[in-house]
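re: that complex we talked abt at group meeting.

here r the seqs, copy pasted straight from the sheet so there may be weird spacing, ignore it
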Amino acid sequence: MNRVVLTGGLILALLTLATLILEIMRRRSGLPYRELGARIRSWWVMAGLFLALILSGRAGAVGLFALVSYLAVKEYFTMIPIRRVDRRIIFWAYLAIPLQYWWAYEGWYGMFIIWIPVYLFLLLPFRQILTGQTRGFLESTGKVQWGMMLFVFSVSHLAFLYGLPEVEGHGGVELLLYLVVLTELNDIYQYLFGKSLGRRPIAPAVSPGKTLEGFLGALATTILTAVALRYLTPFSVPQALAAGAVIATAGFVGDLVVSMIKRDVGIKDSGDLIPGHGGILDRIDSLTYTAPLFFHGVYYIFY
Amino acid sequence: MRLKTLFFLLIVRPLLLLLSGIRAEGTERLPRQGPAILVANHNSHLDTLALMSLFPAATLPRVRPVAARDYFYATVLRRFVSERLVGILPLERRGVKKREEHHPLEPLAEALDRGEILIIYPEGSRGEPGELRPFKSGFAHLAKMRPHVPVIPVEIKGTDRALPKDEALWVPFIIDIHIGEACYYNNTVREFTRRIERFFENGDPHADR
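got the structure back, here u go
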């Protein structure tokens, strides 16, 4: 627990530093840097909420991730084109969210891991039969199930990770903090390296801002950070190196996958819930990939 | 504090926040005080609640959605909600003869004279999801009677998914509200109706004037 508080303190120190740098930039240039200012302010709010709730205990942490899933999938369902009857299908999908997080809260692994990929997967087509609307069945079922997989099933791994029992003196809360801090730092590293050195776009059609330089710079720094934060985990040095590489790469892919959805439906930002960041999808895009991959790596090796 | 204000602060706003979430653009163009005419598209009962919830509590008592008396005062419960909680301005739809001394829009013009902010749905009633029906010209006639009153177009999206006509199940979808620039009556009723209607077709009434 002390290690969690220490890491929380480091995060707040980092945010203080960012705020100070912003203030110096403002004084020197006389520019307001409104976007960046809003971004940093939102980081304060998000970091504060996250730290407070994971320290508050299991109910607070699981509740936070359930809320994040709900808000994210709501943004997703709002932006995709749907048929009129789909609102009924989507209603059932929403009902699956509290249950998924209840399994995570209870630590019932068997149910947690099949509830959305198996039971909901079989249930949604059944609900489609009741609508009697055959046209667009496949597309509608696919879209709803896919959103539930990415924004509920994937994200709920954060909640299950939190509840994992201690390994070599390290509780789930420490692993969770390790994963989330590395994922978010990797996003920031990518942004900083991309802005300063970025020249070669990796996927120009999907997201022109993503560059090879940004990705590689972030990969290296995230791996270093993963080793530095090893005190939160039972990892050996090679394991921490691997965790850093997986998080950097998966985070990058998750970000692009959410960009693919936005490109497909033709919008730039998924929302305005988080000032300076966009919608909640824009903030958790990387986590949708890093959370299940990190979780299953840890689960395979230590549990 | 008025029942209407409490209803919005304690029930409507928290429910909308939890179950839908509103993304509003141009809230700074909402009038702080009347008179004003808000013209909006209409697909759901949530339109009124969502739009009204954007007003500060102090302005709320003056915001009056114009609605058909025969429908909204039909039952005791519906009348209580419409009259006390939402505070509609009931409009007589039937049996009004166009006599010189009593113009059917007179009560609306009087409300404007009292400094109220009227919400008018010129499609008549709630349309099918996502569909915009041709505008009726009532609001333009009203604007002609009080040409100094600003007419503000408001586009509402997402309520047709969250709670469409003839459905009782509220499904969470985000509601987008886009508040346009104020327009003032000029030229003819027909031209003014078209000008406002065009905002809903291309998002800006000043676009192709």
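couple things i noticed - The two ends of chain A are 20 Å apart (CA to CA). The mean pLDDT of chain A is 95.
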